[in-house]
């Protein structure tokens, strides 16, 4: 997995926990073991792991579209469950990163491209939520920045009926590899 990075998108309490303010609920909770296992495999095989996380101020204009979520420093913005535990255990690993983002697309206005270029990454794998929102737009961002892309069927989820549609749409638009 040298030259490859796993991006874990938006797996916060607000997006995953049953009490989260904008939760994808059970479909999002079910992908957690797969994500932890995949992240572990990346770290053990010279890959990079980047936790990308929505980070909003309380007065963010984004909240005219969505209920308030992932406010910086809140419980809702914390990584969900087992992922938080895994992150805490591994955060001293130099190949594990945390990148806060204000946009759906984890490349927009962040250091993500610089980090990936610094490690000669040429392929980006996306897991997390939601398949048809932040995952898709982060795949679009990766593609626009010159990275090859992959999305993991068992590592991504959404609250809509469009999971499969957006996997196929990524394949169509960005030649994204769908890992099943
Ligand atoms: Zn948001």
Automatic annotation (TrEMBL):
Enzyme Commission code(s) on record: 3.-.-.-
Limits of the Isochorismatase-like domain: 5-174
A Pfam family it matches: Isochorismatase
Any one GO molecular-function label of the UniProt entry: hydrolase activity
Record keywords: Hydrolase
SUPFAM superfamilies named among the record's database cross-references: Isochorismatase-like hydrolases
Record has Hydrolase as a keyword: yes
Membership in a protein family: Belongs to the isochorismatase family.
Record-given protein name: Isochorismatase family cysteine hydrolase
């Amino acid at each position: 997995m040298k030259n490859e990075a796993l991006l874990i998108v938006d797996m916060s309490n607000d997006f995953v926990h049953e009490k989260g303010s904008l939760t994808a609920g059970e479909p999002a909770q079910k992908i957690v073991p797969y994500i932890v296992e995949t992240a572990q495999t990346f770290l053990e095989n010279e890959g990079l792991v980047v936790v990308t996380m929505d980070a909003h101020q309380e007065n963010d204009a984004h909240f005219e579209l969505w209920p308030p979520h992932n406010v910086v420093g809140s419980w809702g913005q914390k990584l969900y469950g087992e992922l938080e535990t895994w992150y805490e255990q591994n955060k001293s690993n130099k190949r594990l990163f945390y990148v806060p983002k204000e946009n759906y697309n984890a490349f927009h206005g962040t250091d993500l491209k610089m980090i990936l270029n610094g490690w000669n990454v040429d392929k980006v794998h996306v897991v997390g939520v939601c398949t048809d929102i932040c995952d898709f737009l982060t795949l679009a961002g990766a593609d626009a920045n010159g990275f090859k892309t992959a999305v993991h069927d068992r590592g991504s989820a959404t609250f809509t009926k469009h999971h499969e549609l957006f996997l196929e749409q990524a394949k169509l638009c960005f030649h994204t590899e769908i890992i099943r």
